[in-house]
Design brief:
It is built from 6 helices and 9 strands; from the N terminus they run βββαββαβαββααβα. It is α/β, with parallel strands linked by helices. It has a single domain, classed as Spore Coat Polysaccharide Biosynthesis Protein SpsA, Chain A, CATH 3.90.550.10. β7 and β8 form a beta hairpin.
Length: 211
């Protein structure tokens, strides 16, 4: 931990239903001989002070990855905000040294290697309360930096206000947005469909090694 890179816990969001993939676990799909989840872990582990996996259902299916598997604390598949809240609560209980949580989708095999550093730098330099990633002209609200101190406010938004959209919640706070180039590869390309996985196979050749 340094002043410009505070301790940051990474949460890998795998709580979705993968309807566009025909069900099952999207992060277990293979790209370039490695699962998407392996690629996400390889990219984020060097940047974070620990990783946890937010997933619902039987946690044993992820046992080989050696990460704590945390189910949503809000029932009903409430979306990525529920996974973020779960991570904030977990950090408060088990990692009191951590004030920030980075969230990342587990269907993004090409995440940038400077994700945490740039988000933290922007948050600090802009005096922001939260930070999210963007590429090209598209914002990726699931890829963001969240304050553990805001977990009570987030729980109220989810449980009392029934809020589901991330950008509705982030609109309440000063938000830093950090943009990465989307050429030759969009670092936030997400494999939502079988066709996306096929495209990712081609992009993986350009991307090179997954670490």
């Amino acid at each position: 931990m340094t002043e410009d890179r505070p301790s940051t816990l990474g949460v890998l969001l795998a709580g979705g239903l993968a309807r566009r993939m025909g069900g099952g676990d999207k992060p277990m799909k293979t790209i370039g001989g490695r699962t998407i989840l392996e690629r996400v872990i390889a990219r984020l582990a060097p940047q974070c002070d620990g990783l946890i996996l937010n997933a619902n259902g039987d946690p044993a299916r992820f046992a080989a990855f050696g990460l704590p598997v945390i189910a949503d604390t809000v029932e009903g598949f409430a979306g990525p905000l529920a996974g973020i809240l779960t991570a904030l609560d977990w950090a408060a209980a088990y990692r009191p040294d951590v004030e920030w949580v980075l969230s990342a989708a587990t269907d993004c095999p090409f995440l940038p290697r400077d994700l945490v550093a740039r988000l933290q730098h922007a948050r600090i330099s802009e005096g922001a309360q939260l930070a999210v990633a963007a590429s090209g002209e598209q914002i990726h609200p699931v890829i963001g930096l969240w304050s553990v101190a805001l977990r009570g406010e987030l729980r109220h938004a989810l449980v009392v206000e029934d809020m589901r959209k991330i950008d509705r919640w982030t609109a309440r706070y000063k938000l830093a947005t950090v943009t990465w180039p989307d050429k030759p590869i969009d670092p936030f390309f997400n494999a939502n469909t079988i066709e996306d996985v096929a495209e990712a196979e081609q992009l993986a050749v350009l991307d090179g090694a997954p670490t």
